[in-house]
């Protein structure tokens, strides 16, 4: 890494960081749509460290 970074390099790094951070933030799961008859899992509210995070196989009605 260079000892001295000028303002142009700093601005480039900041722009790269902002772009990468925005991409990470915007990468969230898409909303899901279910129809009656689909099989789904139910996420438990607050599982402990060693507890199951998902329950059952339920049918959407």
Protein described:
This protein has one helix spanning 7-26, and strands spanning 39-43, 54-59. The chain has 61 residues and is of the alpha+beta class. It has one domain (7-59). The mean pLDDT is 88.
Mean pLDDT: 88
Using only CA atoms, what is the Rg?
A: 22 Å
| Low-pLDDT segments, ≥5 res | none
Assembly type of the chains comes to: single chain
Q: Mind summarizing the main beta sheet?
A: 2 strands, antiparallel
Structural class: alpha+beta
What is the count of DSSP helices, taking H or I runs of 4+ residues?
A: 1
Indicate the percent of residues in helices.
25-40%
Question: What is the strand content?
Answer: 15-25%
Counting structural domains, the number is 1
Shape: elongated
Q: Could you give the order of the helices and strands? A: HEE
How far apart are the first and last residues' alpha carbons, in Å?
59 Å
Total beta-strand segments:
2
Strand order of the largest sheet: 1-2
Main attributes?
alpha+beta, two-stranded antiparallel sheet, 61 residues, 2 strands, single chain
Short précis:
With 61 residues, this protein is an alpha+beta fold. It has one helix spanning 7-26; strands at residues 39-43, 54-59.
Question: Can you lay out the helices and strands and say which pair or pack?
Answer:
Layout: H1 7-26, E1 39-43, E2 54-59
Antiparallel strand pairs: 1-2
């Amino acid at each position: 890494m260079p000892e001295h970074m000028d303002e142009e390099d700093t601005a480039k790094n900041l722009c790269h960081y902002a772009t990468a951070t925005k991409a990470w933030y915007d990468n969230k799961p898409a909303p899901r749509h279910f129809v009656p008859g689909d099989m789904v899992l139910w996420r438990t509210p607050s599982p402990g460290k060693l507890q199951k995070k998902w329950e059952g196989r339920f049918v959407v009605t």
